[in-house]
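ok so for the tutorial part 2 we go from a plain amino acid sequence to predicted structure tokens. step 1 is just haveing the sequence, like this:
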Amino acid sequence: MGKAAAVSLEGDKVKIVHASLRGKNITIDKTEVVEEREFDNYLRTAKASEFIVTCDFKEAFHDVITTPVVKEQYLSKIVESEIRKASARHDLVFIYTTIGEKVAGNKKVLEVFYFAVSKEALRQVVERFYDNGKTVRAVYPHVFSAASLFDSHLAGDAHMGIFGTGKARTIFFARKSQAPAARKTPIENPNSIYFIRNYESYETELSDFDIQNINMTISYCFQNIRLNPSAVYLMGGLAELPQISVTPTAPLTSLFRPEYINCSRETFNEYFLPVASFLAPGPSNILSQDFKNIYLLKSCMAYAVQIFVILAALCVGITFYEAKGAAEKKERINLSKKGRADIEAVFTAYSEREEKINQYMPVVEFLNRPSPDIKKLLISLAEIYFGDLTLNTVNAYAKEENTVSVTLQGKAAADTYAAMQDSLDNVTNELRKSENMEITNSSVDLKEKTFSIEMNYKTQ
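step 2 — the prediction. this is what the tokens look like for a chain of 460 residues:
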């Protein structure tokens, strides 16, 4: 059974859930609510080192687009191009879901829903955790976390959900994916989000004003996508249905706690967004590739440290065992000094044993040295613009107590030596701006189109 921690950033409040995960079963162990201004203090003292984050991005771009029916490896580039055309922005990270195929203008096209936010908005969320010594495993837009609670057994092909954080409301329309079975949709979820609408209500509880907005949204969806939801699901704090006088145009029902989530109904309704993030499909993680690489590297380093500690313990055990054997031999020598004529031979054997023990001591001393902290180095590298250079490998070796020898290697897209050298100079100049970095060597290989940068990084 694994332990996990999830955070939901909801305006001036931050909701935290600690849970035990076993397959799809979720057992809620602890819940917390902290003020947004106190969240940094919470992170500094929190025992959990890794978090799943659900965020309500105030500035987001989302819509349904149509693309040619192409193979999956080409679809991402087409979606990215369409997002840039629609938003006139080039600084966005995005996720998308394949809704299905349809015929438009005598041609078969693919319907795709995308959700995009700026890299800066995402960086502000993620770096808050890294600055306080924590790791972000995934970042889910809050509507994708909520939609993960729509199970495949729900009646009908189309569903609508509504939830609120304070007076802010989010309505989303989802339908069962119509993509062919042969197509691997990027979001492995039986329901694909089709439409999102945000508005401000007058009250924190569900009111007639909300029912009017629900009816307007249903009417809009029918006019534009020719679908009506089989039901409208009230989620979170809105699930406790109060008295309303306006009649909804679709059946209204509450989405209560599933059986595989073990907690009280009140806890589920209050913390449904961080709880739902445990169920969110991996590809709906909007974390940029740079931060995903950092998370992967930190995970690999964590496993390496565990193996390192085990080997250190084994080496120390062997050392003590050998030392104990040497001590016993020395005692025997002292007892037999008077009566044994071969004392010199015994002492020579003892000296050989002692020399063998001493061979282990450098290993033990090395293993007992504190591991260098290269977290800030990785964050600095993620922020550097490499231009025509593509960073492939980062090799780091402990050189001294507070110094790490780092080698950066990768590929260059330029065709001339001058262009490659200019790109390399730009990167090394950026690296030199950090007082902790000292460039010792840099080179490019025009024939292989590769580059290499060697430097010393001071961890303190």
